[in-house]
Design brief:
Layout: H1 3-23, E1 25-28, E2 34-37, E3 44-46, H2 49-57, E4 64-66, E5 84-85, E6 88-89, H3 91-96, E7 101-105, H4 111-119, E8 124-127, H5 132-146, H6 149-170, E9 176-181, H7 195-202, E10 205-207, H8 221-227, E11 231-234, H9 255-258, E12 262-264, H10 267-270, H11 277-293
Parallel strand pairs: 3-4, 3-7, 7-8, 9-10, 9-11, 11-12
Antiparallel strand pairs: 1-2, 5-6
Helix pairs in contact: 5-6
Length: 299
């Protein structure tokens, strides 16, 4: 082979190597599955409201082709096509989008639906951040999948800095026994794996049902009374304090009731695995600090 031909061959080889180096996007999801894309995703179907919000937060909102019901933040998310609800997915609508990436929620989407999407051969990433620290890593992996690392980096750095600040301020404070109520009928709370339990710890609180291994266990009124929390926090469904939070006032023997420590945190701020969870955590921390201030002298 003549020198010019050798040079041309070498250049072609380098070009091929460069293309290979930059083409594949390889990320391991929260279930341990390796997700490999030929290039950053440009047509993403999000199967959870928190996934949609997180993609917008890192600058990948324009790459979302469709999402599910209750994906209402930011405002632009409300205009996206819907493929059902996170617990009742429309598999045909998802496939019709011809996505180059589907992001599912392990504890929110039906396992059977997720397996069917896999069987269809759709590129699938499954997310399940159970700790507040996990949110930062989730944002970074989403950024790699969508090729938006530059816009995501300051968001992730800001999230970690703010989390560190809250931890430094509150995690060493005197413990506050806390009952977190998700719903009234059935009476549901948060167990050890739930990210809200992590928020309670962040604030120097102790989840009175934190020993339970399920995400959202059902408990009884009698069990709550026996646990005697110093604080009762409720979320409900919307931006308004649920009326049923005040139903606890009949149980005057409970410390939280006796000291008027019945608090509300908007669910969209504390129940979604997004950067805004720190807004909810900050509200929760302030409520627990209020409860500390209401303790009798010497307690």
């Amino acid at each position: 082979m003549k020198p010019p031909q050798l040079l041309a061959a070498a250049l072609l080889g380098l070009a091929a190597l460069a293309q290979t180096a930059h083409a594949d996007v390889v990320v391991t999801d929260d279930t341990g599955v390796v997700v490999r894309l030929a290039q950053p995703a440009r047509h993403i179907v999000s199967l959870a409201p928190h996934v949609t919000e997180s993609l917008f937060a890192i600058g990948a909102g324009e790459r979302i082709a469709a999402t599910v019901d209750y994906s209402d933040y930011p405002a632009a998310a409300q205009k996206l096509p819907r493929v059902g609800g996170y617990s009742r997915l429309d598999l045909e609508a998802i496939a019709a989008q011809k996505p180059d990436l589907v992001i599912a929620w392990e504890s929110g989407n039906s396992k059977a639906h997720v397996e069917k999407l896999r069987a269809l051969g759709l590129p699938l990433y499954v997310t399940q951040p159970n700790r507040i620290d996990d949110i930062a890593g989730t944002l970074e992996r989403f950024a790699r999948l969508a090729g938006v690392q530059d816009s995501a980096a300051p968001v992730v750095a800001g999230f970690r800095a703010r989390l560190d600040g809250l931890r430094a301020r509150y995690s060493g404070r005197p413990k506050v026994r806390t009952f977190y109520q998700i719903w009234k009928q059935p009476l549901m709370t948060v167990g050890a794996p739930q990210i809200i339990s992590d928020a309670i710890r962040l604030c120097g609180g102790e989840n009175v049902f934190g020993q339970l291994a399920t995400m959202a266990p059902t408990v009884t009124v009698e069990a709550v009374i026996a646990a005697n929390p110093e604080v009762i926090v409720a979320s409900g469904m919307g931006d308004s304090r649920p009326e049923w939070l005040d139903d606890w006032k009949r149980w005057t023997s409970v410390t939280a009731v006796a000291r008027d420590n019945l608090f509300f945190v908007p669910p969209e701020l504390i129940q979604r695995h997004t950067p805004r969870l720190l807004d909810g955590a900050e509200q929760l921390c302030r409520h627990l600090e209020t409860a500390r201030g209401r303790r009798p002298a010497g307690k």
